[in-house]
Amino acid sequence: MGQIGIYVRVSTEDQSVERQLEATTEYxxxxxxxxxxxxxxxxxxxxxxxxxxxxxQDMMDDLEELEIVVVKSITRISRSxxxxxxxxxxxxxxxxxxxxxxxxxxxxxxxxxxxxxAVYQLLGVxxxxxxxxxxxxxxxxxxARQANDDYHHGRAPLGFSKDDGRLIEGKNYDHVVTVLxxxxxxxxxxxxxxRELDTTRSTIGSAVDRGELYGI
Length: 216
Fold this sequence. Notes:
This protein is an alpha/beta fold. The protein is about 50% helix and about 15% strand. It has helices at about 20-30, 55-60, 75, 80-95, 115-145, 150-155, 175-185, 190-195, 200-210, and strands spanning about 5-10, 40-45, 65-70, 95-100, 105, 160-165, 165-170.
């Protein structure tokens, strides 16, 4: 068997990767016959200082050298269904199998098993559904804010511009949403988000408080 990868991630300083490591290494041993010394372990602790998931990026760079990657749950390897869908596509392109323990998924590239094909199809469906729901929540949020006189007379919120007093999405709207979502989940500090978006921490705080504008 080729190289086996293990990926573990926690979202805050207070969490430990040990429980994930125990579950994934035990799975690799019992199901794949791979000892700890045969594993390539990638780990992330997503705080305000490592928002790029450097362990994840290293794993994706090594993907073609890995036969199988084991993770504890879907939430450890992706932030959303769309994120998972993109990840699965990259695994398929590299010819690497993804094992997700908690959900019992074994996502194999070019697998003729109808269940596995259905998994791929469902990931795509859910990704489209999630994107549609975010767009709907955003439109509803904008409509609600349009009724507020503050938005007719004040500055446009972060990521938006104005057209005859009405809010429209700015060119950097998608980037703003991504950063605000990371702040909301504790994966980026307001200070770093402010630097990323060239604004102030108070503006970031106000934007997060207006999450309905951004579908978060």
